């Protein structure tokens, strides 16, 4: 049975993150597994296959040959890549030609100077950004070529460097296996060729499904050709306790898969030696309306059946006797020959490596519907941090709009870097909405949607965020009100955290002090504060939660909340003395995934949502994950880093996990020694610098060095953040390769 998943999509729905994975596009068929990079950062998964041609490969300039042929060798066979492109919804490959006196497509005789060879060794005379049958480059289609007489920049035949580049996206022609460059035989002719990896998005097979509405409904396909070997896999989902999945008959031979009872799946066949049946019994019911996977295989030596991750049941074939399975009837999926058919959903049905198009057939068959609903029952748990699972016709997606997170599974922190003096205000009332309506919608936690707040007061709050800073004191978070009530999270002058509540009824605000723990140490820290009436629960980092209680005289209503502040409090009227002091010079550092009840102020500022009108920012807010809790960003190993592709040293793992590359032990030891030496030197330098600056009373952080001179927000982060290359988001990385 298959050790690897069939596609990146399958790994994504096992909750895996972006990485290199082995996939096996045709199960136990002849293709064999290949190593690809799966990028899970978008709604649809990208599968990337790399080759060995260097970017900007120079051709010509010295040799007087008429044609120069560049060969691309992929980390997969052409058949394997075809299996990926044919099941994908969209594929693309970047191609670029830089030229100096070297023409590309348009020749006097009409035969192009340069062409590329794609799938099935076909020559193609169109270039990136154009399409089949159009002998043009991108500039020819957009009508902005260097010389308007030609359809490519390079065809102007200038002595200066020019370039024609773009995406090839007609997937039936991909991948590019050769580029043949022709116009290089004149003195001064030079060219450089770049070809990107093949990238495919979406997986039409994984979600190809049909719903069987009545127990007599079925789909029929042409006879299954499985004489000496049969490999059948599919997913099913049902609330019925029995039914036939599929059957194909011969004169006496047959092959059949069925749900025999709520806990039994049966695989039976006869090749002329009498019927054989293999049954897998599940300890828990299989009719629980969740997806279950079935894999049945038969060859001349043995037959096997596997359901989900339950133990594989194997039956050896008799040493003598018949081995060929001879079938004549059509293949029936669902009810066959008057038997009680399967009620529910079957998806991703593959017979000997070919996915049957259940969806197309279901469109024209009564009693069977194309597609399937109810994916959230099986996959909803992957939507993390309060993300809501949303059913889609072919799968599901996670709606992160009511969370402080982002990404396909709502696990990517949305955070920002605050320069000194920067602040953000989120007003609970925006122009044009009644205060009552708005507060009841967003501020009251989702658990009590029926409360409309007539007097606009809260008796419970939930706050969570993470931060990192090296400067104290500062104000991290503050909620003001139209009354003297407020709530604040501060870092005091000694670097300790303080939670401060002023709800009235007490002379002084109520403080929770977390002593003996320096929070201004530049490390990311997470803070969770929950108040329900008088009870406050605080959790810091990974320490156990601690409980506190407001004094007996304290009011338990937070009256008339007005605005939420990050980094600094700019509020009219009387302000708490300490907070006033901590306000200058303001917070410097990083805040991430800030959420107060239903409000995510940083996300509203950085992602255009309907809440963005409530946000006011002073200074430039630079998105960064420097304040993210460390658990969400493990440092990249060689195996996960798309800059690092070492397919030669790839070993086959025993199960479908991501693969690490072995590291030479000696080099690791030498590297370790060097690292220790460098670390020691750095420590000494830091100590000396701090000693020099001690008298002046200044303490420079390196948080925002280079931010002033950077051209853009991204450049500022790259200048500042030493770990930027580790934490840069994957979608950008794809383009940088």
From TrEMBL:
<dbReference type="InterPro" id="IPR001791">
    <property type="entry name" value="Laminin_G"/>
</dbReference>
<keyword id="KW-0677">Repeat</keyword>
<feature type="transmembrane region" description="Helical">
    <location>
        <begin position="668"/>
        <end position="689"/>
    </location>
</feature>
<feature type="domain" description="Fibrinogen C-terminal">
    <location>
        <begin position="1"/>
        <end position="51"/>
    </location>
</feature>
<keyword id="KW-0130">Cell adhesion</keyword>
<comment type="similarity">
    <text>Belongs to the neurexin family.</text>
</comment>
<keyword id="KW-1015">Disulfide bond</keyword>
<dbReference type="InterPro" id="IPR013320">
    <property type="entry name" value="ConA-like_dom_sf"/>
</dbReference>
<dbReference type="InterPro" id="IPR036056">
    <property type="entry name" value="Fibrinogen-like_C"/>
</dbReference>
<feature type="domain" description="Laminin G">
    <location>
        <begin position="440"/>
        <end position="626"/>
    </location>
</feature>
<dbReference type="GO" id="GO:0007155">
    <property type="term" value="P:cell adhesion"/>
</dbReference>
<keyword id="KW-0245">EGF-like domain</keyword>
<keyword id="KW-0732">Signal</keyword>
<dbReference type="InterPro" id="IPR050372">
    <property type="entry name" value="Neurexin-related_CASP"/>
</dbReference>
<feature type="disulfide bond">
    <location>
        <begin position="345"/>
        <end position="372"/>
    </location>
</feature>
<keyword id="KW-0325">Glycoprotein</keyword>
<keyword id="KW-0472">Membrane</keyword>
<dbReference type="Pfam" id="PF02210">
    <property type="entry name" value="Laminin_G_2"/>
</dbReference>
<dbReference type="InterPro" id="IPR000742">
    <property type="entry name" value="EGF"/>
</dbReference>
<protein>
    <submittedName>
        <fullName>CNTP2 protein</fullName>
    </submittedName>
</protein>
<keyword id="KW-1133">Transmembrane helix</keyword>
<feature type="domain" description="Laminin G">
    <location>
        <begin position="208"/>
        <end position="372"/>
    </location>
</feature>
<keyword id="KW-0812">Transmembrane</keyword>
<feature type="domain" description="EGF-like">
    <location>
        <begin position="373"/>
        <end position="411"/>
    </location>
</feature>
<dbReference type="InterPro" id="IPR003585">
    <property type="entry name" value="Neurexin-like"/>
</dbReference>
<dbReference type="InterPro" id="IPR002181">
    <property type="entry name" value="Fibrinogen_a/b/g_C_dom"/>
</dbReference>
<dbReference type="GO" id="GO:0016020">
    <property type="term" value="C:membrane"/>
</dbReference>
């Amino acid at each position: 049975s298959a050790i690897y998943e069939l596609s990146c999509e399958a790994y994504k729905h096992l909750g895996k993150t972006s990485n290199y994975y082995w996939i096996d596009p045709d199960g136990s068929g002849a293709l064999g597994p290949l190593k690809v990079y799966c990028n899970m950062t978008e709604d649809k998964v990208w599968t990337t296959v790399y080759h060995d041609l260097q970017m900007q490969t120079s051709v010509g300039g010295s040799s007087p040959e008429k044609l120069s042929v560049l060969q691309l060798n992929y980390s997969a066979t052409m058949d394997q890549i075809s299996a990926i492109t044919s099941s994908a919804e969209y594929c693309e490959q970047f191609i670029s030609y830089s030229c100096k006196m070297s023409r590309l497509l348009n020749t006097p005789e009409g035969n192009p100077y340069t062409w590329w060879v794609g799938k099935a060794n076909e020559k193609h005379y169109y270039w990136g950004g154009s399409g089949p049958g159009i002998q043009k480059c991108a500039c020819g289609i957009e009508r902005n070529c260097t010389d308007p007489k030609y359809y490519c920049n390079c065809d102007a035949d200038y002595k200066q460097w020019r370039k024609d580049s773009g995406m090839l996206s007609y997937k039936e022609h991909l991948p590019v296996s050769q580029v043949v460059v022709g116009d290089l035989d004149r003195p001064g002719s030079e060219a450089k060729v770049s070809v990107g990896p093949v990238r495919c998005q979406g997986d039409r097979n994984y979600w190809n499904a049909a719903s069987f509405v009545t127990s007599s409904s079925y789909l029929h396909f042409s006879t299954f050709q499985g004489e000496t070997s049969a490999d059948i896999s599919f997913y099913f989902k049902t609330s019925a306790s029995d039914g036939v999945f599929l059957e194909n008959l011969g004169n006496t031979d047959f092959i059949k898969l069925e749900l025999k009872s709520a806990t039994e799946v049966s695989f039976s066949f006869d090749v002329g030696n009498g019927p054989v049946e293999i049954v897998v019994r599940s300890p828990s019911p299989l009719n629980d309306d969740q997806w279950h996977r079935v894999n049945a295989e038969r060859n001349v030596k043995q037959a096997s059946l596997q359901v989900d991750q339950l133990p594989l049941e194997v039956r050896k074939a008799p040493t003598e006797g018949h081995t060929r399975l001879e079938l004549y009837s059509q293949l029936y999926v669902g009810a066959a020959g008057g038997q009680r058919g399967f009620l529910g959903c079957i998806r991703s049905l593959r017979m000997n490596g070919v996915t049957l198009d259940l969806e197309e057939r279901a469109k024209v068959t009564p009693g069977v519907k194309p597609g399937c609903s109810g994916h959230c029952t099986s996959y909803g748990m992957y939507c993390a941090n309060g993300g809501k699972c949303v059913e889609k016709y072919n799968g599901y997606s996670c709606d992160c709009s009511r969370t402080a997170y982002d990404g396909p599974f709502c696990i990517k922190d949305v955070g920002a870097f605050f320069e000194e003096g920067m602040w953000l205000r989120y007003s609970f009332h925006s122009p044009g909405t009644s205060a009552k309506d708005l507060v009841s919608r967003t501020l009251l936690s989702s658990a009590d949607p029926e409360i409309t707040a007539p007097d606009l007061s809260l008796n419970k709050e939930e706050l969570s965020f993470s931060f990192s800073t090296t400067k104290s004191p500062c104000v991290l978070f503050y909620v003001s009100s139209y009354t003297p009530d407020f709530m604040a999270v501060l870092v005091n002058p000694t670097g300790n955290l303080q939670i401060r509540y002023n709800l009235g009824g007490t002379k002084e605000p109520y403080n929770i002090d977390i002593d003996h723990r320096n929070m201004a140490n530049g490390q990311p820290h997470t803070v969770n504060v929950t108040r329900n009436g008088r009870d406050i629960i605080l959790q810091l980092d990974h320490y156990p939660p601690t409980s506190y209680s407001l004094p007996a005289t304290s009011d338990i209503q937070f009256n008339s909340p007005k605005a939420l502040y990050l980094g600094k409090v700019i509020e009219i009227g009387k302000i708490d003395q300490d907070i006033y002091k901590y306000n200058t010079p303001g917070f410097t550092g990083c805040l991430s995934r800030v959420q107060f009840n239903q409000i995510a102020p940083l996300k509203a500022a950085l992602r255009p949502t309907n809440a963005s009108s409530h946000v006011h920012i002073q200074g430039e807010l630079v998105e960064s994950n420097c304040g993210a809790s460390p658990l969400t960003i493990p440092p990249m190993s060689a195996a996960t880093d798309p800059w690092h592709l070492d397919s030669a040293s790839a070993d086959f793992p025993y199960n479908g996990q991501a693969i690490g590359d072995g590291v030479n032990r000696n080099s690791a030891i030498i590297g370790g020694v060097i690292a220790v030496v460098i670390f020691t030197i750095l420590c000494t330098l830091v100590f000396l610098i701090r000693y020099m600056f001690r008298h002046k009373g200044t303490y420079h952080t390196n948080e925002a060095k280079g931010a002033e001179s950077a051209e853009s927000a991204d450049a500022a982060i790259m200048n500042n953040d030493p770990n930027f290359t580790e934490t840069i988001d994957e979608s950008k990385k794809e383009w940088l390769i």
